Amino acid sequence: MDSLNYSPAEIREKTLSSKLLLNDNHFSKENTKALIQDAEIKKTIRKKYKLSDTINLNEVQVVAQRHQSIQTSHIITSRSLYGSPDKELIVTPQLQNGQNFTSLINGRFTGVWIMHQPQPWEEDSQIRIRGANGQPLFVLDGMKVKFEDINSIPTSIIDRIDVLYTGASSSIYGMNGVNGVISVITKTGFTYTASPVLYSANIKFSGYYEPRIFYNPKHHSTLESDNKPDLRTTLFWEPNIKVENSKDLYLNYFNADNSSTFKVIVEGITTTGIPVTSTKEYDIR
Questions:
Q1: How far is Cα of residue 82 from the mean position of the Cα atoms in its chain?
Q2: Given 5, 74, 152, 158, which residue has the most CB atoms within 10 angstroms?
Q3: How many angstroms separate the CA atoms of 265 and 237, rounded?
């Protein structure tokens, strides 16, 4: 390791002066001192880029493992049953323009073709792998799924596609993999941002959501610490109200202490699926 501090190089003043006087007998002491200082600076700079005081290290062994990303761990987990695939397609942003899974793999795997018009004695699957008499086994993130489920996945959330040809590679799945296996591995932590279809809902949940309880102040408390001004802007919220015909329903809640105009919004749906809504305003003085 190089040293952090460098001492100036030692130069004999008499030797330098005698050499300079050989060329010029009128060389003064001031010029000699300036040249000595300049030589010391250059010597120090040159020494910084030399390995004169370097200590050679012994053999370095890396014993720690490289930290794997979440996506890498997800790929390893999805491939835990079959290991390495026969063929792999990494879905780049340029390939995500396909309309569905079928258009994504069309023409990109040797021995895998799309059957647009299956014969009457064949199954309804649109995909065949060479040497197979029926549809392959479809796997999504390590789980067996139907072809319809695979084909409905947006291409923007697919990370890669693995193909196991018929034979030894797909035999790990037993009789289910006799016609080959196509495995789809999705991206982790991906949020689908495409515009949803108006008549359907496509939502990906990242985990279990525990609903929060709507806050209500303790109006019946006798503690002085709870006797504070009520300045809420939302007074009452009830998500589940059942209304019956010819019966009145009373909802009790406390108003806030600040004088203002409050709006009551009621939204619901009938037993026949018809949405209803109504609003009303009142003043607090």
A1: 25
A2: 158
A3: 10
Three-state secondary structure call for residue 173: helix
Residue 160, H or E segment = strand 158-164
Is this prediction's pTM over 0.70?
no
Gap between the Cα atoms of 159 and 183, Å rounded: 11
Give alpha helix (H) positions in the chain: 13-23, 29-48, 70-78, 101-105, 147-151
pLDDT band at 161 (very low <50, low <70, confident <90, very high): very high
- On the 0-12 / 13-18 / 19+ scale of CB atoms within 10 A, 66 is exposed
Percent of the chain, pLDDT > 90? Answer: 14
CATH class of 70-186: mainly beta
Domain ranges (residues) in the chain: 1-61, 70-186, 224-284
pLDDT, the chain, mean: 78
CA 24/CA 16 separation, integer angstroms: 12
* Crossing angle (nearest 10°) for helices 29-48 and 13-23: 120
pLDDT band with cut points at 50, 70 and 90 for residue 162: very high
